[in-house]
Automatic annotation (TrEMBL):
One Pfam family from the record: Amidohydro_1
A Gene Ontology cellular-component term: cytosol
Membrane-spanning intervals of the chain: none
Protein name (Swiss-Prot/TrEMBL): Formimidoylglutamate deiminase
Alphabetically ordered keywords of this record: Hydrolase, Metal-binding, Zinc
Protein species of origin: Gluconobacter sphaericus NBRC 12467
Amino acid sequence: MELFAEQALLPDGWHRNVRINVSSDGCFESIIPDARMSASSERKAIVVPSQLSLHSHAFQRGMAGLAESRQNPADTFWTWRRLMYQLAHRISPEQMQDIASYLYMEMLTAGYTQVAEFHYLHHAPGGATYGQVAEMSLRVGEAAQSVGIGLTLLPTLYERGGFDGRPLQEAQERFATTPELIGRIISETRSAWGEMPLLSVGLGLHSLRAVDLRTTSDLLSAQTGSVHIHVAEQQKEVEECVASVGARPVEYLLAQTDVDERWCLVHATHLSASEVAAMARSGAVAGLCPITEANLGDGLFPLVPYVNDGGRFGIGSDSNVLISPWEELRTLEYGQRLFTQTRCAALPVATLGSTGGWLYRQVLDGGRQACGLESWGLLAGARADLCVLDEDLLPLPYLQDDAVLDAAIFGSRQPPVKDVLCGGQWRVRDGRHVNHDAVTAAFRRTVRTLLDL
Ligand SMILES: [Zn+2]
């Protein structure tokens, strides 16, 4: 396959007249700027690297918009969690696959071609293991494979109900795992997927409240892929952590474990100044989920000091209440502007230029690192993933270079995405997934039954 882009964002910046060749193994064979168009080329106006959602709970897509009515005067994250648990309690493996397929199709249509699925729903209702212990994980892989998105599955350890070691509640029994069981799920999944080019496996630790770090050293040392953990998302969690171990969550995590580039600290919303600096120094990625964090009222991540300390970050769709990498970046930047009462707030102090362009590139690299991928973007040898933008959905015509990304992030009402290539195959054409109708019909049937609509 050969494409010809009038303008394309390459690792060293924007170029004109770029010839893009895709080899039969689904990777880029060559990317040549200032080239001539050949007779076999398909012409595209604007081509950018596709994005990565570094944090997702696929099943939560089944409750998008259902948790927005106030149930008591002090509605919080914790009341949202009760509703989420009701859904987690009921969902079957088939329903999981239908919902994940639909969600991943939405991700592709919005411009994501890789997702890290933070997966802790392992067992049957009641807590019994399935005949195949990795059943739910394999269903998530089936979903990704069927719609054609890259997946980093993170089988997630969930051991206890709180910092004090209290047992899991009934609603959490489908999550209950030991390090040994997670090790088994990881190895079953790895051997089932073999060399499938879109599917890979890392490790999730649910949170410091649900995992005792002292139990994880064997699991961590056996693990070569990425390691993700929810941390410091809620003030209550910070207070409980301080009361229990005498340190704040990120402070404690960094002291107890060798946190490095393999790690993704999801949310990390509530940080002291010294935690900001230490986390940036660790080389870990901050997994920011701006739409979900706003939706749940988590608080604002201290992005300004963090980027000035050289911290890395990426974006995740998390609760999947709304799928758009463009809106994640807009929400991220607007939160910082409102908080700091400045404009172009996310840029490090000495950096001038496009906010959208800078943010887009930062989260490409943070997402790549957090998903455990070696290369990403428009370069020879990388998996052939890209997004063709739809000029008609941008707010102005004739845009060039980073002005395209600024307009796409801050001025477009919907993801300005026309075509999406993942693993060398077109998954989205003219704004529609190639298998849209069948995936949508299955999702609608499943949601009707699951939610009793
Ligand atoms: Zn999460």
